[in-house]
Automatic annotation (TrEMBL):
Lineage of source species: Bacteria, Pseudomonadati, Bacteroidota, Bacteroidia, Bacteroidales
MF term (GO), any: oxidoreductase activity
UniProt cross-references to Pfam families, sorted A to Z: Nitroreductase
Record-annotated Nitroreductase domain positions: 9-61, 67-152
Full protein name: NAD(P)H nitroreductase
Length: 178
């Protein structure tokens, strides 16, 4: 990647992956990026669960009623959790970590897709975070924010076009200011 602006344009959600496994070096690079994610007051309230077991990936693919099935086909899923008792902004910190993981994946030429878990439900109506917690034996004090599916891209996506930027959503000095 030549620069950060280019990285932002080419990073698109990827829900289709090849069968190629990730190398240990790729997984380590992703974890380093996650562990370098900024947090409020450097609380580091997040924790990450790396899942590459096919059976567990299949189970995780049912964490939501819709839009999570592709997890089963990803060679890696990173479950992003955080401890709300360690930080009152755990949601923000875990969200930043999730996008840092996605940007690192894109920089490495990998595809990724964020699967929202917090405040979502399985097809049977069970809270998604409770379902993921049970599948992966996550301690009760940790809240599950997201699952980031990662793998080698199984399709091409066009980069984001700047002509679609919604400049009307940018305000100067005050809302509605031009």
């Amino acid at each position: 990647m030549e620069n950060f602006s280019e990285l932002l344009k080419v990073r698109r959600s990827m829900r289709k992956f090849t069968d190629e496994e990730l190398t240990q070096e790729e997984v380590v690079a992703l974890m380093k990026a996650a562990l370098m994610s900024p947090t409020s007051k450097r609380t580091n309230a997040w924790q990450f669960i790396m899942v590459d077991d096919k059976e567990l990936l299949e189970k995780l693919s049912h964490c939501k009623a819709q839009a999570s099935q592709f997890i089963a086909d990803a060679p890696l899923a990173i479950v992003v959790t955080a401890d709300p008792l360690a930080s009152d902004v755990w949601i923000e910190d875990a969200s930043i970590a999730s996008i840092i993981i996605q940007l690192q994946a894109e920089d490495m030429g990998l595809g990724s897709c964020w699967v929202q878990v917090r405040e979502r439900f399985t097809a049977s109506g069970m809270p998604s975070d409770e379902y993921v917690r049970e599948v992966l034996d996550i301690p009760l004090q940790l809240q599950v924010l997201s699952v980031v599916a990662i793998g080698h891209k199984g399709m091409e996506r066009k980069p984001f076009s700047e002509e679609h930027l919604q400049w009307e959503k940018v305000h100067i000095n005050k809302y509605g200011g031009k």
